[in-house]
Amino acid sequence: MKKITDYENKKVLVLGLAKSGVSAAKLLHELGALVTVNDFKQFDQNPEAQDLLTLGIRVVTGGHPIELLDEDFSLIVKNPGIPYTNPLVEKAVSMNLPILTEVELAYQIAECPIIGITGTNGKTTTTTMIGLLLNADREKGTARLAGNIGYPASEVAEESSAEDDIVMELSSFQLMGIKTFRPHIAVITNIYEAHLDYHGSREEYVKAKWAVQENMEANDFIVLNWNQQELRELSETTKATIIPFSTKEKVAGAYLADEKLYYKDEYIMKSAELGVPGSHNIENALAAISVAKLKGVSTEVIKQTLMIFTGVPHRTQYVGEVGGRKFYNDSKATNILATEMALSGFDHSSLVLLAGGLDRGNSFEELVPSLKGIKAIILFGETKDKLYTAAVEAGIKMIQRTENVQTAVRQAYDFSEKNDTILLSPACASWDQYPNFELRGDAFIQAMHQLKDIEK
């Protein structure tokens, strides 16, 4: 990593722990900063804070006392999950105290190029695809995944060498806390309406996403979804070189034509050869192909890698076959749009959908067109009655309400027959029954494996 001196003897407040906060605190301590860590969780239930204390880092736990700001800090490094409406954060803003996120620190110490991927949907899949493509036939260095995908960016940057690439998934929350951050290649998969409870308005959400290119220059590249008029218009305001991708028209980048994928008129592969289903995954693949081509990856390597890529866990992930039925885990589909995208990739006449979860007040009317033609639907969780109404409106003949994902899998199996597909794509968050979407997806997979035991 770069040995920077920017933080020597400066008082820095790290606000919120989790993985990124722990990494930021350790890095700043190593860089000579006078670090104070503040986390809401009580000290006796906070192993991360206990660990940092043994390193000589000051910790304040059990709340976010505003009086901390009387201590003349030079800046705050904020956990992305803490909103700007937090009283301590609001006070810091009023004091014009710089508030960064950990990805800014990662950029400052990184010796290698950063590829930054953001967007509303498809970030993790596209990030994973890019990592695989850049590592597939690599002779020197490694493409290292980082950021919102689960690996603290500053920790990855600290471990990386000049021969590596950092492939960094970036949330809008993280991008609100950048100052000099400049990826060599940026990707925006798409922009839809999301996280308005955090950002306050769509305008602020889009502004946060678009910040990924704020410091880019003409010798940098930004890969944009040309299907979206909003991104076309925003493209006129960047200094970066634009690489468009589209599933609707031929563009001067990556595109779909006659069910084939191209990059600047070079044929790459058939869309049907992708290892993951769905029109949204064609978009993700086109974005990944654009980055791979910019980095000099050969067409053959791109094709072979994308053919065997079967998805990211919990994101339209193929998880196995039982009794001639194929099972797909899309537990990450925590909103209607994500489920609509997943449904676009399957033959509805042989599809059994499992859906339901936390009730956030949605009526699910907008999901009705995507439900039409589905063979059967099994509903669970707080929203099962609302989804039942939508399923009736869509004309689905076979509708069943059940208790949870586990019972839904067994009923889906009983409703289905050989050559059918069973898809978990809930269109809802998991928190009514499961702590997170990962555990909900794991429950789906476990229930599938239990079916295997029954079949024996």
UniProtKB/TrEMBL annotation:
Family matches, as Gene3D superfamilies: Mur ligase, C-terminal domain, Mur-like, catalytic domain, NAD(P)-binding Rossmann-like Domain
Keywords, comma-separated and alphabetical: ATP-binding, Cell cycle, Cell division, Cell shape, Cell wall biogenesis/degradation, Cytoplasm, Ligase, Nucleotide-binding, Peptidoglycan synthesis
Residues holding ATP: 119-125
GO biological process, one term: peptidoglycan biosynthetic process
Residue ranges annotated for the Mur ligase central domain, each copy included: 117-292
Subcellular location: Cytoplasm
Molecular functions per Gene Ontology: ATP binding; UDP-N-acetylmuramoylalanine-D-glutamate ligase activity
Family: Belongs to the MurCDEF family.
Cited function: Cell wall formation. Catalyzes the addition of glutamate to the nucleotide precursor UDP-N-acetylmuramoyl-L-alanine (UMA).
The protein's name: UDP-N-acetylmuramoylalanine--D-glutamate ligase
UniProt organism field: Enterococcus caccae ATCC BAA-1240
